[in-house]
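Margin note: ligand = 2'-O-acetyl adenosine-5-diphosphoribose.
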Amino acid sequence: ERIAALASEIASADSVVALTGAGVSTASGVPSFRGDGGIWERFDQRDFHFRRFQADPAGFWTDRIDLREAFYGDREIEPNAAHEALVALERAGHLDAILTQNVDGLHQAAGSESVVELHGTNREVECVDCGHREPADPIFERARDGELPPTCPDCSGDLKPAVVLFGESMPDEPTIRAHELAGRSDVFLAIGSSLTVQPAAGLPSRAQRSGATLAVINLEETSVSSRADYDHRADVTEVLPAVVEALE
Ligand code: OAD
Ligand code: ZN
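Resulting structure:
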């Protein structure tokens, strides 16, 4: 049926590229932003704006500690069947790259090699003045212990999570790579994303304009579902392993 048809398009494609969003990580216990129980029902997006960080870094960090708790709790999060299926696709030579909006690092933890992080990573913090980066966990510890905001060991500038905040532009290098990869793809998979945040949300159309087959795998309708060649409104942890199985 439709999964078999998608699998055979993947098998005959020269280049397959996947764009992933929060829906890939919900089965790992990481909540999504939108949809049922989404983060933006519980937190005010404006508190995490870049302008807020600049105006009130201490208050920003206090809210960010709560947000991190809501995302990851105090347990070690683990990749799920969707991440693992993408690893299997790459190892079988059927996936050139993952373009991810996620900042949880789970694609890399699962073993995917070619991952473009469009929105940065929550696993690190960066200095807004000199660009120094270091692992996030110890810095969050220091912030919880009252160092607000935590500062850079090199230049004592303010540290911020190494993610793209609202009101910040996406870093150039990953954005350019993502556009190139999307433009060169024959099959573009948009997986677990509501596709509401630009410029990532424009990548599926970019791929389609250059001739790619577009497949959407998401529980709900997305901004590009109506123009997709395949529109799987289903759980990514079921569809992706089924695609891998169909390819074997
Ligand atoms: P969203 O939360 O907007 O969308 C996640 C989508 O995944 C929703 O449509 C869910 O229905 C769907 N979903 C959830 N679990 C699923 C599952 N198991 N199988 C299939 N679908 C599932 O997340 P993103 O599109 O990633 O930006 O959000 C994009 C950006 O908005 C984020 O990167 C973040 C946010 O504000 C920044 O922080 C800059
Ligand atoms: Zn610095």
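The chain is about 40% helix and 15% strand.
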